[in-house]
Design goal:
By secondary structure, this protein is mainly alpha-helical. It has helices at about 5-10, 10-25, 30-35, 40-50, 50-75, 105-115, 150-160, 165-170, 175-195, 215-225, 230, 240-259, and strands at about 80-85, 130, 145-150, 205-210.
Length: about 260
């Protein structure tokens, strides 16, 4: 960049930079420093080259209007919406977990989709329930890595038995499905951290309309600058000399009478 050369600052690129600095609230001194010239040089260029002067004015006007509008908004008060996002847990087995539920509805959908919305044991489709690989009585939790989709029949039969030993005794036992279960455990473990960190698993639960009350400091600042005739800090004391003289005369007359 050819800093310090007025030809560059009259180019389209140079004028865009100047307007941007002015819009960002920089002073003329700071803008001159960015341009690589002195403040006095910039002042001369403003007089000599209308494009530079107009660009500075245009950039500063935008900021001035934005600040003015923001100040008026604070002075009058305004309403705004507060968006609340929460992580929604699955509510299916709250009682069995003393309300300590960690599985989200989204995670449960991923679990079912992994097994093609079929029972992971017998392969039946239809209504699926949550089965725990590690039983609850042994400290198992309702987490994505410990939950499998299974039909009501399999869930009722398995109960709190150890998963593999129970499964191998069933007439519908399948090595392929057993392998898929263990593959799923590895898969769930690999994505759990990512799922918990991603913001899109926070759900908007409510929008609250709030009101910001008028700000008295902003009101005073606005009125002092817009209506100084009525809102200046000190009112002028006007002395009526005629009345003052009359008071003095009356006092003097009173003294004469008392002599």
């Amino acid at each position: 960049m050819a800093k310090g050369k007025y030809e560059y600052w009259l180019s389209e690129e140079g004028l865009i930079l100047i307007e941007g600095w002015a819009r960002d609230g920089l002073t003329d001194k700071q803008i001159a420093q960015n341009m690589g010239v002195s403040r006095s040089t910039l002042n001369e260029w403003k007089k000599k080259y209308p494009d530079i002067l107009d660009t500075l004015k245009r950039g500063k006007e935008v900021v001035d209007y934005e600040v003015e509008n923001a100040l008026l908004k604070r002075a009058l008060g305004f309403t705004y919406k507060e968006v609340v996002k929460e992580r929604i847990p699955d509510s299916g087995q709250k009682k069995r977990h003393s309300n300590g539920v960690e599985l989200t509805e989204t995670q449960w959908e991923i679990v079912k989709n992994y097994f093609n919305n079929e029972c992971c044991y017998c392969g039946k489709s239809g209504e699926l329930t949550k089965d725990h690989i590690k039983p609850l009585i042994e400290g198992g939790e309702l987490t994505m890595i410990n939950v499998l989709p299974c039909c009501k029949s399999c869930n009722s039969s398995k109960k709190d038995h150890e998963m593999l030993s129970w499964y191998q005794k069933q007439p519908f036992y399948s090595k392929e499905r057993a392998k898929r279960i263990y593959d799923y455990v590895s898969f769930a473990g690999s994505i759990m951290g990512v799922l918990e960190e991603r913001e899109n698993y926070l759900v908007v639960t409510k929008e609250i309309e709030r009101t910001a009350l008028p700000d008295t400091t902003a009101q005073i600042f606005w009125l002092k600058n817009r209506r100084p005739d009525k809102w200046r800090d000190k009112a002028e004391n006007v002395i009526d000399n005629k009345s003052d003289n009359e008071i003095k005369i009356n006092i003097a007359s009173t003294r004469d009478k008392n002599k």
